[in-house]
Specification:
- This protein has 154 residues and is mainly α.
- Helix content is 73%, strand content 0%.
- It contains five helices and no strands.
- The protein starts with a helix and ends in a 10-residue tail after the last helix.
């Protein structure tokens, strides 16, 4: 009797495993991308303001180039992440951006770089698991790559 209940519970869990994974991937992707947009928008607006560009130059490539790269990652790649377009590539760019941020903050106490490390962990997780089923790239792949298990775009 107990074995039947365990098997029934296991069957129920197995039935919901894939949808739960896709919901979790969607939540992680939209959450991590949406939260980063809040940081990317002010950087994007610096290019259109009257004030001189103010930004750190952790790699020694110039303030404008550093700001442009950070803006590309934190605004444009975050937008790609939210919509599920080239998810792994966008997350990898954001992870590299967060590695640079952690490097730039390495002399500061932990509480100053904790947020960058948290973002880094989120983006690395997205690189590993992908964007899940519900994203623009995956919808395109389902139409183009009928029957394939994995999508090279997502």
């Amino acid at each position: 009797m107990n074995t039947q209940k365990i098997r029934a519970a296991a069957a129920l869990l197995t039935q919901w495993e894939k949808p739960a994974f896709d919901i979790g991937a969607l939540a992680l992707r939209v959450g991590a991308g949406g939260l980063m947009l809040v940081h990317g928008w002010p950087k994007l607006m610096q290019f259109f303001g009257d004030q001189p560009v103010q930004f750190m130059d952790p790699l020694g490539i110039g303030v404008a180039a550093s700001l442009a790269l950070a803006t590309f990652a934190e605004f444009f790649c975050a937008l790609l992440l939210v919509f599920g377009i080239m998810t792994r590539v966008a997350a990898a760019v954001l992870a590299v951006n967060m590695l640079v941020a952690v490097y730039a903050l390495c002399a500061l106490p932990w509480d100053k770089k904790e947020l960058a490390v948290a973002y880094l962990v989120m983006y690395l997780a997205i690189v590993l698991i992908g964007g899940g089923r519900w994203g623009v790239s995956n919808c395109i792949c389902r139409k183009l790559c009928k029957g394939q298990q994995s999508c090279p775009l997502s």
